[in-house]
Amino acid sequence: MRGLKDKVVIVSGGATLIGAAIARAFVAEGARVTIADIDTRGGGALASELGECSRFIATDVSRDVDIDACVAATLKAFGRIDCLVNVAAAYIDNGPDSPRGDWEKAFAINVFGAAMFLRACRPHMKDGGAVVNFGSTSAGVAQAGRWTYPATKAAVLQLTRSAALDLAADGIRVNAVSPGWTWSGILDQISGGDRDKVNAVAKPFHMLGRIGDPAEVADAVLFLCSDHARFITGTNLAVDGGYAALGPEQALSPITELMS
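User: That's the sequence. What structure does it adopt?
Assistant: Structure tokens below.
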């Protein structure tokens, strides 16, 4: 990817499967990365793996003091901030039974965390800065028993559009990616680590017939941060194996059935 070498990137949620793939991909392109996460064990191990071009900063994105400390530590270590990738998210969703506390926590992490990280980074991002927020296919469709998570992701997409407009004059591009089902901590947890089972369940509503890999999402994030995407801002890039384009008929052919 053109234009990523020597850039400094903060990846919130960087110790997760998807976040870690993004951190690794940036380092492979010659960038320096701050891994911001509450997972001290996973974040520390990843930073050790990536070496001197990375730092792990324990960060709870629902706490502004943690965000400010992460930004300060990144500036001290690397001297600049070029890109921000807001991966950190919480899946807290009991649908119609979600109490106020769950709504508040979901928005505090998924939406307010992204907004406050951008607010803290903005003064230090030079012309050519790039931000990638994480939406979701859940943001645009109704899903049974899921209220809080889709609502937060829809808010993130609107935040992306608004920020892109207001920060364009600063030379900062703001985009989002919306993954479909991707091998992640939550899918690992609820499936008992059975990726084949997840693929089987997800197959009918992904055109490509499988879930995504963290590295495939990372490729899209790097593209949006690179010079190849220098005229792209305010957009939402679906990295979803065709999920969003597939309608209720899925891959079936009801017209053929009617004609039979």
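The domain at 8-259 is CATH 3.40.50.720 (Rossmann fold).
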